[in-house]
Amino acid sequence: MTDAPPIIQLDHVSKIYGGVRAVDDVSLSVAHGTFLAIIGPSGCGKSTTIRLINRLIEHDEGSIRISGEEIRSFREETLRRRMGYVIQSGGLFPHWTVERNIATVPVLLGWKPERIRDRVTELLALLQLDANRFRKAYPHRLSGGQQQRVGIARALAADPDVLLMDEPFSALDPITRNALQASLARIHKETGKTIVFVTHDMDEALRLATQVAVMDRGHIVQLGTPRELLHAPANDFVRGFLGAEDRGLRLLAIETAASRMRPVNGLAAETPAIAAGSDLRQALSEMLATGQHALRVEEAGRVVGELYLDDLVRL
Amino acid sequence: MRILRGPLPWLLLLLVVATVGMPATKPLFHAMFPALDRPMYEQDSFTALMLAHLWLAGVASLVATIVGVALGIFVTRPAGAEFRGMVETVAAMGQTFPPVAVLAIAVPVMGFGESPALIALALYGLLPIVRNTITGIETVPADTREAALGIGMSRFQMLARIELPLAAPIIVAGIRTSVIVNVGTAAIASTVGAKTLGSPIILGLSGSNTAYVLQGAILLALLAILLDVAFERLAMWLGGWRRPA
């Protein structure tokens, strides 16, 4: 890493509502390209924290800096146009087409029409939305998942440094949520954007994030990688939030079959196979469902390795 | 020509023909009211009355719209929120007074003529516009507002690009109510000396000349229907994005 300042830096930040410290002495440093999930129960201050960063709420104590610059040195609008913002309901503008919605910030920034058009085309492709079908559609014609895809495209439109997301997938059904999580993981990989993502769903946080901050009553209780959290929860609160009885399964869920497989050693061709990118929890599930101790691991239709039950159990 | 398919251009044509051609129907009114010596109102031309009526109701509605929308916007801003109760009360009072009473009070102060009528009508038309502007802006969902600010619109940009366009159908419904009421009430303004389509009606009523009443009333009714249809059109156009594709 370089010596560049962290893209987002919170130092001893507090927000007080009528004597209650909704966010209490939070310090946080987010390096460029991090996918940070802030997780905690309702009312723990996670949504307040994300709004402090784009100044939808002003903090009372401490300092918040973006790439080393105090956020209050910017005009609010300038600051927010540098950060994409996605909310739970999508918040699309109902009287504007998908194209106009996505173009919101570029239009505010005065981009040329052809540049905006090209950018919208690019983003529709990135979010896997068919341009012919959706470009001129109004939001009420879209499903919840499609609306949220447009919401993410709108947030990314002006290529912001940071993407702030407030429980973006909480209102979606499990299948749609799963598809959007996969899309977001891909977008994070492809664009290298710094993402701050608020959620109350631990599986979602562990699946997507490179860093997880667990909050409780305004404090950050633990900050670490998904692996660090699962191996060494800081206290009972974090352990409880990780789901005491699911912790082992969640550990399996953050590693891929490819990471634990052995070289090909002649497993019978009728042995069930799974994709190399599947996580170990899916592998275990497949073993349980088929009654096998071993699976073949496939990538692009080729067998690339073998995975045994013993491989899953080892820490 | 899509516009020709609706009733709007035909109504307009009918209104113009009826206004300009009213004197030509004199024989008809002679036949209908044989007892009357003069069954056709001829003190002023109907075209002049129609234009004066439109001017009076139009200016009053324009003033009511500008003031009403501005007040509605003001009291839904954080800075104006504390004036909201007062504005709503005053606007409601404006409508509680019968327009005739407002006219009666205005005349001693301002004299006979158009001015007291304008004041009375503008005041009377204010309430539906203020009320609907407030309601319209308040029906914009909180998350739409949060998204607008959150992605970097200024408060003014949010008002101009999001809140007002989304509130427009409701605001226009308020203006429609106000205009229709004003067009009808403007007729009463001829009691204080303003020339309107009410002039033949008032004169006819006081002189037991049913033909005069009929002539004024026909034109007034046509005008009200035309405006109502025109607003219907405008509302459909404003809410176009709601229609299924």
Descriptive labels:
heterodimer, A: 315 residues, CBS domain Like, 6-stranded mixed sheet, 4-stranded antiparallel sheet, 13 strands, B: 245 residues, MetI-like fold, flat
Q: How do you describe this structure in short?
A:
The complex is a heterodimer of chains A (315) and B (245). With 315 residues, chain A is an alpha/beta fold. Helix content of chain A is 38%, strand content 24%.
Strand content of chain B: under 5%
Biggest sheet of chain A, strands in spatial order? 6-7-8-3-9-10
Radius of gyration of chain A, in angstroms, nearest whole number:
22 Å
Question: How many individual β-strands of chain A?
Answer: 13
Mean pLDDT level of chain A? 91
Q: Tell me, briefly, the overall form of chain B.
A: flat
Termini distance of chain A? Answer: 29 Å
Largest interface, counted with CB-CB under 8 A? A-B, 30 and 21 residues
> Which regions of chain B have little confidence, pLDDT < 50, spanning 5+ residues?
none
**What is the total domain count of chain A?**
2
Show unreliable segments of chain A. Answer: none
- Supply the helix-strand structural class of chain A: alpha/beta
What is the fold named in CATH at topology level of chain B?
Answer: MetI-like fold
- The oligomeric state is heterodimer
What's the SSE pattern of chain B?
Answer: HHHHHHHHHH
Distance between the termini of chain B: 21 Å
What does this 3D model show about the protein?
The complex is a heterodimer of chains A (315) and B (245). In chain A, a hairpin with a 2-residue loop joins strand 12 (294-299) and strand 13 (302-308). Chain A is an alpha/beta fold. Chain A folds into two domains: 8-246, Rossmann fold (3-Layer(aba) Sandwich); 255-313, Alpha-Beta Complex (CBS domain Like). In chain A, helix 5 packs across helix 7 (144-156). Helix content of chain A is 38%, strand content 24%. The mean pLDDT of chain A is 91. Chain B is mainly alpha-helical and 245 residues long. Chain B has one domain: Orthogonal Bundle (MetI-like fold). In chain B, helix 3 (46-76) packs across helix 6, helix 3 (46-76) runs antiparallel to helix 8 (155-186) and helix 9 packs antiparallel against helix 10 (210-238). The longest helix of chain B has 32 residues, at 155-186. Chain B is flat. The mean pLDDT of chain B is 88. The chains are: A alpha/beta (315), B mainly alpha (245). At the A-B interface, helix 2, helix 4 and helix 7 of A face helix 7 and helix 8 of B.
